Amino acid sequence: MTTARVSSPQVLCVGELLWDCLADQPGLSIEAVESWTTYPGGAPANVACALSRLGVSAGFVGCMGSEQSADRLLGELQSLGVNLEGVQRHPTAPTREVCVLRDDRGDRQFAAFRSGGYIGHDTREFADTRLQASLLLARQFQAADCLVLGTLALAYPDSSAAIRRALDLADEHYLKIVLDVNWRSVFWPDPGIAPGSIMPLLERVDFLKLAREEADWLFHTHDPIAIADKLDHLEAVLVTDGERGCHYWISGHGGVMPAFKVPVVDTTGAGDAFTAGFVAQLLERGLAALADPAIARSVVAFASAAGALTTTNPGAIDALPLRSAIEDLLRSQGLSGLS
């Protein structure tokens, strides 16, 4: 496909773009599922799309296959205005398809992968594992303000080296670095090496977002203040916990944002929408403003509303909300002054 050149992105999102294959029959095992519906997904790509919907210039950097299904995925991002100059294409490795099981409440489980209609657990064959450090575009980092990363790329040698190079470029050009841990054991050929691969990365980021189970897994606590004490260079720690809301520590003060009550259909992409909402507000308000506890709380409210709205429709990118929908939800909860 031909990708149009768009403006230099303010935020670079590095990692995976893939197909989420959602089970059409909730509550069944993978063997019992009769049919699947595919949706564009992949956490960094979701964040880039969510930012674009919120009016923030975003770019996606990752490696894709060369098949038509990859063209369709890139076309989805292009239609939302995401900058694709940093996308690499691999001639033989396929674009990843992830089988996503759902329970009756909409909570999901990443269970296996598909390739050519075959369902299996080999995670090393896909194009997203082949992102090349040498092909990253330094000019994009020079023009950007923020870098958003996950940890799945650390599971593979090539993409792990690319993440380290992206961090070097971010440091060189003074980008703020946001990490959403996004732990998915099924992506790791050896999940046992994951903590040792992830923990050094935490020393290089400015803002850390985790789900509660990820916080307990990495730090044996989900208290953001305790995590900030262990990583005292961080400027914010955000721990999301589904229907129990978000616990946060930002610029020296902590708080809790209760969850928004919405009809949940599918939780895929909710954390990515939260991350995008936080980044959008960070860029809009500025880091210095977050020293005000009221402003920090408003930022978390906006991010939480973005995540909640994403759960009300299936899929990730297809379900990402517009700013107007977020503001409507905040007004309906008496939080309009926070947006």
TrEMBL record:
One of its GO terms (molecular function) is kinase activity. It holds the Pfam family PfkB. Keywords: ATP-binding, Kinase, Nucleotide-binding, Transferase. It is an enzyme of class 2 (transferase). Residues 10-321 form the Carbohydrate kinase PfkB domain. PROSITE patterns: PFKB_KINASES_1 (PS00583), PFKB_KINASES_2 (PS00584). InterPro entries: Carboh/pur_kinase_PfkB_CS, PfkB_Carbo_kinase, PfkB_dom, Ribokinase-like. Its EC number is 2.7.1.-. Belongs to the carbohydrate kinase PfkB family. This is Carbohydrate kinase. It comes from Limnothrix redekei LRLZ20PSL1.
